[in-house]
Amino acid sequence: MSGWLSQVIDQDYLLQARQMQALSFAVHIPLVCFGMALPTLILFLEWRAMRTGQEVYRTLARRWSRILVALFAVGVVTGTVLSFEMGLLWPQFVGTFGSVFGLGFAIEGFSFFVEAIFIGVYVYGWDRLSPRWHFASGIPIVLTGVTGSFMVITVNAWMNNPSGFRLQNGQVVDVDPVRALFANPFLWHEFVHMYIAAFMVTGFLIAGCYAVSMLRGRTTPYHRVALAVPLTAASVAAPAQIVVGDWAARTVGEQQPVKLAALEGLGATTSGAPVHLLGWYVDGEVRYGIEIPRLLSLLAYHDPDSTVRGLLSFPPEDLPPVNVVRIAFQTMVGIGSALALLAVIFLYIRIRAHRLPASRWFYRAVVLAGPAAVVALIAGWVTTEVGRQPWVVYGVMRTNEAVTAASGIPIGYAVLAAIYLGVVVGVGWILHRLAIRPLPADPPPRELVEEGVP
Hints:
Elements: H1 11-52, H2 55-89, H3 91-124, H4 131-160, E1 166-168, E2 171-173, H5 177-182, H6 187-215, H7 221-255, H8 257-264, E3 270-271, E4 275-277, E5 280-282, E6 285-287, E7 290-292, H9 295-301, E8 307-308, H10 322-353, H11 360-387, E9 391-393, E10 397-398, H12 399-402, H13 409-436, H14 446-450
Antiparallel strand pairs: 1-2, 3-8, 4-7, 5-6, 9-10
């Protein structure tokens, strides 16, 4: 203990508080993805409607804007819960470092209010604004959805690589929030990684819904466009994520060597360190895994003979739960690789043959891709957050020094789980109601209109 608290917090409180926070993140993060990516897809559809005059694009944009409203409303609920949890579960963290990262949450709050205003303008302006002004009213939604998420990620990046302050007698002094939040080597790879993940999650989930319709024989132009647009966005994002992942791994290797060792389960410091697929870390080594020689050194430092520091070279109290980190990381990478393969198949057929794939197996894979992308998203955040343990602020404040000493967390945890269950059921019902609303009737052929046939 480094003296942040005058008392040692019961470990039970720490585990319960972390589980409660993790539950809230798991519910909220997919909604963040929709807030970042869905407005862009909607504006693209509206732009296509203005360019081509085809009503199918406008119909899709209008229907998806209702989904955006529903998910934004739920995001307000889950985001508010997270805000309260920050102060209630981690009072020492917020009280000590609030002056450092507070600017990030202030800008995020401002972005949220601007986004809410323009979502209202956009949704209620479909028949009240000219097409150009209506399209323009959606641009701030795209921008604020990105800036709000960007500011939250600046705080997370700072937690992984803290700077912009000094500690003097346990007090934070000489605070420079701009340097702390924006001059951080973790910031840009975290933001780009999350931004691309947002298009993967949103694109594959929406495409999966319409893939079900395609499997049921609904192959109208509406359903084909509704599948092609989000699937194309997700398919462009998925291969790009592999490049960003390499960037992130090299930054982690330089700044958080203990996390890099935990990702692989590397016990001893090794020159030409291998990667083990699957397996279980125990007693300083990975057992039952499939070894790929020198791959960890190559991926982390772009040199197959480079030396990677092992877990046994760090104090035991500074190690994260290795198997949790390894399983989460390999889950993220495995699903991400499968999604990238699916994306390449789709793009190849789309570009080469100028059509959608014909195989029913492809559409079955798209249906599974949406939930799989959510699993990969949450696994990625587990990798980031659990891999930083036991630190809430890396190298500065431990998580058990930040947690509340209040009792009653199990009761709050149970109530929160029940509330989230109700929210999930409610959202499912709302989205189902929106999905079954009848489509507008197709206009009659032009020649019939000219002849006066109703």
